[in-house]
């Protein structure tokens, strides 16, 4: 047999030639691609010279750019003055009559801005050197009017204000007046009025009886609206030391009637028939006392003076010292403008030389103790602004500074036990700072 030729299978030679051909084509393609890339690089370098900045990237849409924050509003807090109107308040702050009118008309469906009351708070927020943006008015303890001045116009709404009460301890020492001592303690004048009218005004004349070194401490609820201090709630307990005499007052709510009053530590009422002073807190001087024979400053003759003269600036408020009915309000010869009140237990009081009368004071009107009967003046036979204050009992004059008045009804006996527990709790609150100081300095026991 002859030797067979090596077996490679059919077409083997062609396959090898075709593989070499494909490799050549691939190499050519790669070379062409490299040439294209090189051309692109050359083109880019030609367009963008070395060192030149890359083309700017288009800015993102305006919505994606961070907006400049609006300027901060300037807010002014305004305590509404007595006998003032919204127009008077706003005209002093850059408004014109037309702007005030437009504001009132726009807000009227929600609230009548003509009804703003003295003592309430307004807050006006404006752009720096620009128009006002927001007006807020505290309508009452829980309601607030909010007015917005938007590009679309003025819109108003009533909002509910969450109220929070926080108990607080306040103390101080008298240097000149109760108001001054409270202001130094960081409190407002209204707390002084509450201390007098609720707790001690029947026992102490805070215009004439105070002495330097007198002291006080008060456990009181403070009211906050939206976390902001907004006045005082109830005084829960108070103590006042006047010339060594200690007066205490504790608030107690009757469980059955839910009425509240203030009592001393034994359950005696702090209230009496009459407040000690007819003048509200402007530290008047007593220039003439009750006397059966006084030299008259005008007529220069000796005759009785059945009252107490309080020298005070014209316009100082004069308060009724007890509940009563107006028996007379008008001009009364040498007494000038005068008001006379008729009280229970055959008492009468008279307030002479007034400049004008309080709101609603006319014959037959009923007044509460603390209501304004008029304002200090110098009408009638008078040498200067003062109040001549007089008290009559069974038709005869009595000394307002020395007369002993009957206290109101004491605590009802069936609640004395409950009251005792309340006094113990409140007394602890009044003395808590002392207890804390004592514990802080007490020696630590060692074992």
Outline the structure in words.
- The N and C termini lie far apart (123 Å).
- This protein has helices at 12-47, 86-91, 97-107, 178-184, 189-200, 416-430, 432-441, and strands spanning 74-79, 121-126, 132-138, 143-150, 153-160, 163-173, 215-225, 228-242, 245-253, 260-263, 285-288, 291-295, 302-305, 308-311, 317-319, 324-331, 337-342, 347-357, 366-367, 372-376, 386-393, 396-398.
- Helices cover 22% and strands 33% of the residues.
- A hairpin with a 4-residue loop joins β3 and β4 (143-150).
- It has 7 helices and 22 strands.
- Among the domains are: 74-160, Nuclear Transport Factor 2, Chain: A; 163-263, Roll (Nuclear Transport Factor 2, Chain: A), CATH 3.10.450.350; 290-398, Glucose Permease (Domain IIA) (Distorted Sandwich).
- It has 447 residues and is α+β, with helices and mostly antiparallel strands.
Index terms:
10-stranded antiparallel beta sheet; 5-stranded antiparallel beta sheet; globular; 22 strands; 447 residues; 7 helices; Glucose Permease (Domain IIA); Nuclear Transport Factor 2, Chain: A; alpha+beta
Give a brief description.
With 447 residues, the protein is α+β, with helices and mostly antiparallel strands. It is 22% helix and 33% strand.
- Average of pLDDT: 82
Continuous helix count:
7
CATH class of the domain at 290-398: Mainly Beta
The percentage helix is 10-25%
How many β-strand runs?
22
CATH architecture of the domain at 290-398: Distorted Sandwich
Radius of gyration: 43 Å
Strand pairing plus helix content: what structural class? alpha+beta
| Low-pLDDT sequence parts | 1-22, 39-57
- CATH homologous superfamily caption of the domain at 290-398: Glucose Permease (Domain IIA)
Order of helix and strand elements from N to C terminus: HEHHEEEEEHHEEEEEEEEEEEEEEEEHH
């Amino acid at each position: 047999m002859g030797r067979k030729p090596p077996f490679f299978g059919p077409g083997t030679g062609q396959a090898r030639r075709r593989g070499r051909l494909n490799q050549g084509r691939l190499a050519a393609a790669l070379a062409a691609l490299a040439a294209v890339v090189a051309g692109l690089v050359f083109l880019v370098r030609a367009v963008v010279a070395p060192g030149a900045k890359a083309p700017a990237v288009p800015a993102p849409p305006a919505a994606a750019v961070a907006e400049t924050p609006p300027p901060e509003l300037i807010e002014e807090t305004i305590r509404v003055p007595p006998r003032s109107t919204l127009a008077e308040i706003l005209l002093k702050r850059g408004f014109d009559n037309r702007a005030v009118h437009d504001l009132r008309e726009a807000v009227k469906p929600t609230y009548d801005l003509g009804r703003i009351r003295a003592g309430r708070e307004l807050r006006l927020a404006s752009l720096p050197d620009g128009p006002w943006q927001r007006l807020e008015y505290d309508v009452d303890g829980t309601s607030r009017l909010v007015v917005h001045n938007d590009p679309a116009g003025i819109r108003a709404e009533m909002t509910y204000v969450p109220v929070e009460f926080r108990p607080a301890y306040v103390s101080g020492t008298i240097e000149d007046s109760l108001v001054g001592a409270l202001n130094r303690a960081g409190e407002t004048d209204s707390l002084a009025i509450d201390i007098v009218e609720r707790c001690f005004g029947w026992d102490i004349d805070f215009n004439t009886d105070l002495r330097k070194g007198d002291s006080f401490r008060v456990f009181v609820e403070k009211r906050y609206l939206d976390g902001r201090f907004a006045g005082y709630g109830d005084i829960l307990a108070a103590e006042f030391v006047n010339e060594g005499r200690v007066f205490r007052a504790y608030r107690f709510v009757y469980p059955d009637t839910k009425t509240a009053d203030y009592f001393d530590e034994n359950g005696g009422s702090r209230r009496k028939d009459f407040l000690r002073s007819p003048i509200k807190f402007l530290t008047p001087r007593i220039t003439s006392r009750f006397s059966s024979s006084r030299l008259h400053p005008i007529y220069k003759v000796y005759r009785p003076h059945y009252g107490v003269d309080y020298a005070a600036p014209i316009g100082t408020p004069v308060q009724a010292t007890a509940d009563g009915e107006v028996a007379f309000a008008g001009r009364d010869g040498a007494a000038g403008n005068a008001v006379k009140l008729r009280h229970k237990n055959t008492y009468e009081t008279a307030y002479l030389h007034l400049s004008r009368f309080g709101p609603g004071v006319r014959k037959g009107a009923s007044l509460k103790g603390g209501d304004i009967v008029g304002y200090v003046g110098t009408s009638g036979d008078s040498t200067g602004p003062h109040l001549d204050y007089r008290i009559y009992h069974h038709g005869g004059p009595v000394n307002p500074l020395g007369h002993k008045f009957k206290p109101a009804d004491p605590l009802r006996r069936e609640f004395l036990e409950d009251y005792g527990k309340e006094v113990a709790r409140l007394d602890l609150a009044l003395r808590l700072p002392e207890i804390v100081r004592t514990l802080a300095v007490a020696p630590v026991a060692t074992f």
